[in-house]
Specification:
176 residues, single chain, binds adenosine-5'-triphosphate, binds magnesium ion, alpha/beta
Length: 176
Amino acid sequence: MILLLIGNGKGKTTSAIGQAIRVLGHGGKVAFLQFIKSDKFKTGEEKILKSLKDVYFYKGGLGFVGIMGDNLPLVEHKRAAEKTFNLAKKIILSKKYNLVVLDEINNALQLKLLKTKDVVEFLKAAKKKIGEGVDMFLTGRGAPKSLIKIADLVSEVVDVKHPFQKNIKARKGREF
Ligand code: ATP
Ligand code: MG
């Protein structure tokens, strides 16, 4: 199935982590791939996920795109996103993982680091080919309509209130 977590509220990536724990608890295998997020910035979840033998973890981004002091050419962000997507394709089609998380892929699509058509066409074809064995869990803000259309499950996390609005910065253990 294609599961999609969208919206501006907090809870999309943590939901994917929760889903991964659930699959692992049943003896399943998980591939957790992250777009945009950079390996230079360590998060609590990656430390734990990387330590588990049934998890393949890959962080394929180069960090913020066009904001927060990013001065890398867009083409480099695109290259990184394409590399991560190519890896995702191989992993999904290998059928070795019960759950494949594509964290922040929606943001990569919104920023045009990947072509929506390529991703949607691949997911549709993959779903047909692999059947029920593999769940593909996609997260991020700004999901394109065509992706929402082909997904089997879509949940939107609505931003009702966030401490960020009171200038409270991201905190270890809460946001990362
Ligand atoms: P989390 O990783 O906590 O589940 P998320 O995946 O839903 O959050 P993203 O859209 O990926 O959130 O945002 C990236 C970062 O911004 C995370 O550290 C997240 O906690 C934080 N964040 C999420 N929602 C908001 C918001 N409405 N305002 C400010 N920061 C937010
Ligand atoms: Mg996220």
